[in-house]
Amino acid sequence: MWNYHNPVAIQAGSGSLAQLPALLNGRRALLITFPEAAALGLEARIAQLLGAQLAGIENAVQPNPDVSWLAAMYERVWREHPDVDCIVAFGGGSVIDCAKAMLTRTPSGRFDELLAHLQGSREGAPLSGAGAKTLIAIPTTAGTGSEVTPWATIWDAGAGSKYSLHQSWTWPAAAIIDPQLMLSLPTGITLASGLDALSHALESIWNINRNPVSSSLAAAAARSILATLPDLMAHPRALALRERMATAALQAGLAFSNTKTALAHSLSYDITLHHGVAHGIACSFSLPHVMALAFGNDDAVDALLLDIFDAADAQQAVAMLSAFLERLGVSTDPAHYGVADAWDTLVQRALQGPRGRNFIAAVHS
After folding, report:
1. What is the pTM of this model?
2. Spatial separation of the C-alpha atoms in residues 52 and 75, rounded to whole Å
3. Between the chain's N and C termini, which has fewer beta carbons within 10 Å?
4. DSSP E strands: which ranges in the chain?
5. Are the beta carbons of 294 and 208 closer than 8 angstroms?
6. Are residues 160 and 247 in contact, defined by beta-carbon separation less than 8 angstroms?
């Protein structure tokens, strides 16, 4: 038996940003976005679209939302906009994850109560969806998947920790996927987000939680990313390529919204936290290593992976994935990221993490 569930209403295609006022349906909204959005003219574009419906703007989101600055934003949002029903998250995965952290009001309106819940402290008050704000997510990168999933990754660099926020009300109510918004994306972010999407797709396949729908979405996404990303890196202003990548990233997000991620993502968190490697690179450079471990555990998974890479056997598929990453300038050598000596230990530890336990080979480790 299996099931597939995703409640996010999706508006997609070039020019779909124009649907935002209709999605708000008269409600006022708080815009959460990234600092560069103003210089790019994107803040003004949203403001013009929303007019009097725009209640305010929070534009100081930094990469990898950290408790060191989330607390002040959280308390400001609930102090200054308690009656605003909706948050519009406009940006990459960090912006959307940050917005998810703003949705729930703690009893006191203080962030430390939310942090206690994330830490699993018994002193943390139970969270309630009563009075929670709704979220409309508008990604400006093709890769995060956060616009169609309920999870947010919250970092605590000072404590050397990361937390996962997940409640029934942290699913976005709607997502707008407009590739026009991605035309100005720098090549470095284009690469990292595209490889994040590839990781989502492959991790949804070698996953104990996979189902026929998620596997179909993941395979379509992986094939499209493998065919599109190199061309997009060479022609970043090509709208047709941006649209193909946006669709593939969405398909990957819809896949892992049901399976969650697996070993490559579990490995990535320490590498991002302690070595400063961008998330999309940290979760993708290990994909050939992880795929080699995935082969031989499930005949259907093996067949699907061989089909995606049009490979004769596992060794060829792994070599093709390694060559794909290397051609894009992404080393697959753990030594490049400063973790060669600890690699085996990192893999074993990652297999024991919540995401690592989703990997199909974890039960045999």
Report:
1. 0.95
2. 24
3. N
4. 9-12, 29-33, 54-58, 86-91, 134-139, 151-156, 161-166, 174-177
5. no
6. no
